[in-house]
Structures are given as C-alpha cells and as structure tokens.
Amino acid sequence: MQLGPSELILNADGSIYHLNILPEDIATTIITVGDPDRVSDVSKHFDSIEFKKGKREFITHTGTLNKKRISVISTGIGTDNIDIVFNELDALVNVDFEKRIVKSNKTKLDIIRIGTSGAIQSDVAVDSFLISEFAMGFDGLLHAYKSDTIQHKVISEAFVKHTGWSSDKSVPYVVKCDKSLAAQLSSNRIRFGLTATNIGFYGPQGRKLRLELADVSLNNKIASFEHDSLKITNLEMETSGIYGLSKLLAHRAVSMNCILANRVTGEFSKNPQKAVDDLIQYTLEKLMSN
C-alpha cells in the first residue's frame, strides 16, 4: 500500500519532515539525547564527523569511532517528541521514499538513550549510572498503537492497585528494554531499575512551586511500590516511549540514565556536566567493545 502525502511527509529535498535528514544520513547505531547541546558532547568523542544537520530541536551528527559508524540525535523533552523521532528514524531505514511503500526487508536499529534522571530510592546514588530494565509510562503514548503484546500488564495492574491510580488518568503501561543490548552495555558499574516516565517535570514529578498538587503523596506511593522485588528507581520523561516504539518497530533500545538528583535525600550532583560526560564515554566504550 502506498503511503499518502499526509502520512509520509517529505521536505522538498526528499528528507523526512521533522528531522530534515535523508536515509543515507544516519547509521544503524543511534544515540539519542534530549538536549540539542548534548549532541556535540557525544560527537566530540568521534574520530571523524561526516554529517551535521539541525531543524527545530532535532540536531543530528553522524560520524565514526574506531571504524564504527554512529549517529547521535537530539529528541527534545517528552514522549510526544519520541513519537516523532522514532517513527521518522524507522521510516528512514524501512520505507522507500520514492515508491512510498514499506520495504519488505527491514533494517534493525540499535538505539541508546543517554539521559539524566532523578532517583526516588535513597540507595540510588547521585552521579551513578542506571539502565532502565523496565519502563513504566504515565504518558499514554503507547495506547495510540496496538501494543498489548509488548506490555507487562501484571506489573502495571499491580501498580494501579497499589497507588489507587485515578481512572481519570491514562493507564500506566510497562515495557522492557532489549535484553541483548542491555547486556552489552552493562558492567559492575551499572545498576538496573524500573524507570517511571512522566508527562512533565514539575507537578507530574511531585515538584511544587506555586501550583498546588492534586496528590501530594504520589511520589511516596510510586517509591513504595514493589512487585516481585522490582521497585521504581527513578523518574524521567522519554524512556517508556523509546521502549514501546522500539519494540513495536522491532528495533533494539536501551536507556542509560545518569542520576543527577535524589528526590529522597535532596541531593543534586555537584558536577552534572562531568557526570553526564562520564556516562557518554562509558557508553561509547561499551559500544566499541562489540
């Protein structure tokens, strides 16, 4: 079936609409970062950079490191942007733009998020690294797609019961990382956890400035949840969308979290830039080891 102009939207130069890049511009190993300024923090470690392009908050650099071709792209904040970036990344490798049809032979991408996060368990240290073994989405993105087969509903149902989750809110969903890619990126320096993906930074994560919170005890309910020894370890804003869309599109994805804050102890990293750069270098070294 041919994809119509309103479904597969291309720019005048043939590039995909939002990312503004062509299929040849990306590698099959892709690092995603939220902050556009962090793209160069990753690509500065490459041996060479062959391509740079940006549109809106979406900045892309592609280069090589130890003869391995890698792309790094900024997504901006939130799973609404993840929906754009991941659908367009998949289209770049799995849709024939000239014929406007889905290719019969699919390309599998390895996608690694390098991002910051806040811990909600007291024993998750500031400046430590955490792989999201599972992601719980409060955002609702996955409910727009046929996704029952990839969800871990036993965990989400237990969470809804534990927290007394309001029926007015989107039902949380749970998706697991790619096991093989996570194994490649793991070491004794890495902790595994269940990451909660929020729909905002302030109220949805229990932060209060001037506005009153609808449920002042929500973070405590989230932190006290446990299912088969699995606890929610940290909060951020993209991982559930990354895992959900990657699973549905048959790509491999892992979220690497640099813990900059601990919401229980009130600590914040004294040198967040160094902590993030350490995680960048760690991740690149692990990718080069395969």
What does this molecule look like?
This protein is an alpha/beta fold. It has 2 domains: 107 residues, Nucleoside phosphorylase domain (Rossmann fold, 3-Layer(aba) Sandwich), CATH 3.40.50; 158 residues, Nucleoside phosphorylase domain (Rossmann fold, 3-Layer(aba) Sandwich). It has 7 helices and 14 strands. The strands form 2 sheets. The chain has a 5-stranded mixed β-barrel with strand order 7-12-10-8-13, surrounded by 4 helices. It has a two-stranded antiparallel ribbon with strand order 5-6. It is globular, with a radius of gyration of 19 Å. The relative contact order is 0.19.
Write the layout of secondary structure elements.
Blueprint: E1 29-33, H1 38-43, E2 48-55, E3 58-65, E4 68-74, H2 79-94, E5 95-96, E6 101-102, E7 110-119, E8 129-137, H3 153-163, E9 173-176, H4 179-185, E10 190-197, H5 218-224, E11 226-227, E12 230-236, H6 239-249, E13 252-262, E14 267-268, H7 272-288
Parallel strand pairs: 1-4, 1-7, 7-13, 8-10, 10-12
Antiparallel strand pairs: 2-3, 3-4, 5-6, 7-12, 8-9, 8-13, 11-12, 13-14
Helix pairs in contact: 2-6
Supply Rg.
19 Å
Instruction: Write the element-wise H/E pattern from the N-terminal end onward.
Output: EHEEEHEEEEHEHEHEEHEEH
Our measurement of the CA-to-CA distance between the termini, rounded to an integer number of angstroms, reads: 38 Å
Q: Name the CATH architecture of the largest domain.
A: 3-Layer(aba) Sandwich
EC number: 2.4.2.3
Protein name: Uridine phosphorylase
Domain Nucleoside phosphorylase: 29-279
GO molecular function, one term: uridine phosphorylase activity
